Amino acid sequence: MSKFWSRTAREAKPYTPGEQPNELQVIKLNTNENPYPPSPNTLEAMKRVVNEDLRKYPTPTVDSLKSVIANREGVNDEQVFVGNGSDEVLAFAFQAFFESNEAIKFPGVTYSFYPVYANLYGIPFQEVPLNEDFTINVDGMKQSIGGVIFPNPNAPTGLALRLNQVEKVLQGNPNSVVVVDEAYVEFGAESAVQLVEQYPNLLVTKTLSKSHALAGIRVGYAIGQEELIEGLERIKNSFNSYTINRVSLAGAEAALRDDAYYQETLERVINTRVWFKQSLEELGFEVLDSKANFLFVKPVRVEAEWLYLTLKERGFYIRYFDKSKVRGYVRISVGTDEEMERLLNEISNLLKNYVQ
Ligand SMILES: Cc1ncc(COP(=O)(O)O)c(C=O)c1O
């Protein structure tokens, strides 16, 4: 605490990101990164723009990237907004569509950045408890006063809503914006982008961080009807004209044009998730039916926190959330087959040698 801090800085409750350890030997399964590298074309495209043009600002309107995204998503260029990671897009959405006197709704267990933004912008919120089976309570998400936000698939559970359930939330909130955060949708869930034409209150956000192995260049985007996109542009242009740097622009465009490569890595991640889930279940662990690139896992015989700390000592980083409702669980990102085999071995050995 400093006497120089504004009230906003004093009262902020910042998000705690997963650790980014420096040691090379660590097997890092704590921040849902893609275990495979970006495609060679993507890397080449970025290298090509590391030249003297870097003295110039990037384009403030990112028209060319917007066109590539629009083409891929089957929408118009005017229905696309691009941000510095989808976290930034979400932050702008909170400012553009939510009010300080109207409570928004999000699930009781969800991405922990939502309450951080709500707190930062002074937006009241109601956390709608999940159903017993950890699915999102669709009826509970209806009739919000200020708007709704939820990830699909949800984090950290990995469970996805079907499109007809997403539609119920949209129909239940005709006068406020529903943000569907699809950070993990490419790993097996249905995208709500196809509902954008029909629902003026729908904003879908996506990211290249996970599906396109580009967490390091920070590019995310939103799809919605033109009026919503214009709202986001108004906030962005009141904050920073140049949110996407030249290298990120080149990388994002090249990646989105290199679909075959990324489809293959997505399939590899999904296949690994399937056998790893089954192997954990064979050990007696309870594993939710994830449609994302991570698994939400309840260990047996050992405490979740103990498992997290012990694995960390042994060089395996996974995520543990010290919060009621999820204290019994750990979240494990899906790595390569080799990484997951090593983790499985380590967990089996720990269970064998564990004496209470
Ligand atoms: C549910 C969810 N939404 C959004 C993000 C943000 O992704 P990025 O800012 O890298 O696009 C994350 C990152 O982990 C996430 O888990």
Tell me the β content.
5-15%
Outline, from the CA principal axes? globular
How many domains is the backbone divided into?
Answer: 2
Biggest sheet character: 7 strands, mixed
CATH architecture of the largest domain: 3-Layer(aba) Sandwich
CA gyration radius, whole angstroms:
21 Å
Order of helices and strands: HEHHEHEHEEHEEEHHHEEHEEEH
Uncertain runs with pLDDT below 50, 5 residues or more?
A: none
Q: State the helicity in percent bands.
A: 25-40%
Helix/sheet category = alpha/beta
Protein name: Histidinol-phosphate aminotransferase
Pathway: Amino-acid biosynthesis; L-histidine biosynthesis; L-histidine from 5-phospho-alpha-D-ribose 1-diphosphate: step 7/9
Domain Aminotransferase class I/classII large: 26-347
Pfam family, one: Aminotran_1_2
Index terms:
about 350 residues, alpha/beta, Aspartate Aminotransferase, domain 1, Aspartate Aminotransferase, domain 2, 2 domains, seven-stranded mixed sheet, four-stranded antiparallel sheet, 11 helices, 13 strands, globular, binds pyridoxal-5'-phosphate
Summarize the structure.
The protein is of the alpha/beta class and 356 residues long.
Can you walk through the features of this model?
- The protein is an alpha/beta fold and 356 residues long.
- It folds into two domains: 7-37 and 260-350, Aspartate Aminotransferase, domain 1, CATH 3.90.1150.10; 40-258, 3-Layer(aba) Sandwich (Aspartate Aminotransferase, domain 2), CATH 3.40.640.10.
- The protein is 36% helix and 14% strand.
- The strands form three sheets. A seven-stranded mixed beta sheet has the order 2-8-7-6-5-3-4, with helices on both faces.
- The longest helix has 24 residues, at 259-282.
- The protein is globular and about 60 Å long.
- The termini are far apart.
- Residues 32, 85-87, 111, 151, 155, 181, 183, 207, 209, 215, 220 line the site of pyridoxal-5'-phosphate (PLP).
